C-alpha cells in the first residue's frame, strides 16, 4: 500500500502555483503561526471570511455548548430555536424587504438556492419562459457547476461548453480603465444601459434575473458599484420585470461599514440578497438567502420551495452564527470596518506614492484591493510571462503576510491582491501590516525588475 495517502487540499491545485504554503498550527485575532513559529498577519482574512478574527473563545464555547445540548435536527422533520433566532436576527439587520431567510452551508449553495427559488416562483406563477440570467464580465458567483456557469470569466468557457448553461454577460463598470471616449461616470452609465440592451435582445419575458456583486471580490479586485449605476439597474429591472439579485457573499455582513453593502443605496434595494463568508466568519460553514415575505409566503401557498440540503439550518452552525453576530455587537465591528477602512486606505495610498507598481487602490470599508501594474502612467498590466499575483504572495510570506491573490480571467482585466483583514484589527496592527507590506512591495518590485530584465526584448 502506498505510504503517500491523503494530503492537504492544495494537492488538487495546479502545480504551476509557485508559492509554497506554510503549515499553520495556530491563529488568534489577525495573526497566524506556522509549525516553525513564524508569525503572519492574515491580510485578506483568508478568502475574506474571518471577519471577527481568529480564535474567539466565546464563539468556540457557543459551538461546544450547542453540540452538547443538541447537535443536529433536520429542517424537513423538526424545528429548533437556534434556527428561529438566527433568521430573525439576520432579517432585522437586513431591514425591510428581507423578512424571510433561507440558510445554507456556503455562498455557492446559497446562490443556487436564490436562483432555484426565483425559478420556482416564476414557474408557480405561470411565467415558465423566464429562465435566462444576466451577469457581469468579469464576476464571480460560486464554485458549483451552476454558479460557475453564471460567473463572468471567459477562461471557463472550454470547461462549460456543452456542459452547463452560461449566463448572458454585460461589461462590468470598471473605473480604473475606461474607454478613451468616456469619463468614469459616463462609462458606468453605458454599462448600465448595456443591461437594458441585453434584456431587449433576449426578450424581457425570457429573463429571470440580473445577478451582481455590489462590491466585487477577486474577480474585479474589489470594484465597487456606484449609486448612480445601482439606481439605474434597479430602475431597469423594475421596468422590465426582472429580479435583481445582490451577491453579497463576500462584501456583506458588515465588511464595508454597513450590514449589507447595498444599504449604501437606499433606492436600489434588491429583490434577493445572498450572504455568506462573514456570517459564519470561518468558524462554521454558513450562508443565507434573504427574500421578501410576500414572495416566500405566496410560493408556500402554491407549490412551496421544497429544495433542501442536509445541513440547512444545522443547530451548531446556527448557534455559531448567533455568537458571531454577538461579537459584531460587542466590538461594534460594522462601524469599526468603516473607520478602520478609511485609516488603512490612507496608509495604502502612502505606499502607492512610493511604489510605482501600485496602480490603483479601491473598495470600501475593510474590503480593498491593490492593483499591480507594469507602468502606472499608461496603466499597462504586467506581461503574461510575469505573474504578479503569485510573486506578491511569495514576497508577502517572506515578510510575514498571508495575502489572497491569484490571476483571474487570465489577467485580461488586470492583476491585484485583496487587503481585507479581520474587522477586529487595531490601529497598531494596521501600522504593522503596512510596515510588512512596505517590505513586501520593495521585494516585489525588485523581483519584477530582475525577471523582466532577463526577458528577451526582440
Task: Describe the fold and architecture.
This protein has helices at residues 45-48, 57-69, 81-94, 107-124, 145-149, 157-160, 184-202, 227-240, 293-301, 315-331, 333-354, 388-398, 427-454; strands spanning 24-28, 31-34, 39-42, 100-104, 132-137, 168-171, 207-212, 243-248, 272-275, 287-291, 358-364, 367-372, 401-402, 415-419. The chain is α/β, with parallel strands linked by helices. It folds into 2 domains: 9-55 and 333-454, Aspartate Aminotransferase, domain 1, CATH 3.90.1150.10; 58-331, 3-Layer(aba) Sandwich (Aspartate Aminotransferase, domain 2). The strands form 3 sheets. Strands 4-10-9-8-7-5-6 form a 7-stranded mixed beta sheet, with helices on both faces. Helix 3 (81-94) crosses helix 10 (315-331), helix 11 (333-354) runs parallel beside helix 13 (427-454) and helix 12 (388-398) packs across helix 13. The longest helix is centred in the last third of the chain and has 28 residues, at 427-454. The radius of gyration is 22 Å and the shape is globular. It starts with 23 loop residues before the first strand and ends with a helix.
CATH structural class of the largest domain:
Alpha Beta
| Oligomerization category of the chains in this entry | single chain
Instruction: Give the low-pLDDT segments.
Output: none
CATH-defined fold name of the largest domain: Aspartate Aminotransferase, domain 2
Count the domains. Answer: 2
Number of helices: 13
Shape: globular
Distance between the termini: 53 Å
Give the strand tally.
14
The main pleated sheet reads as:
7 strands, mixed
N-to-C SSE series? Answer: EEEHHHEHEHHEHEHEEEHHHEEHEEH
Residue share in helices? 25-40%
C-alpha Rg (nearest Å): 22 Å
Which strand order do you get reading across the main beta sheet?
4-10-9-8-7-5-6
Structural class: alpha/beta
**β-strand amount:** 15-25%
On the 0 to 100 scale, the average pLDDT is 95
Relevant CATH superfamily of the largest domain: Type I PLP-dependent aspartate aminotransferase-like (Major domain)
CATH architecture identity of the largest domain: 3-Layer(aba) Sandwich
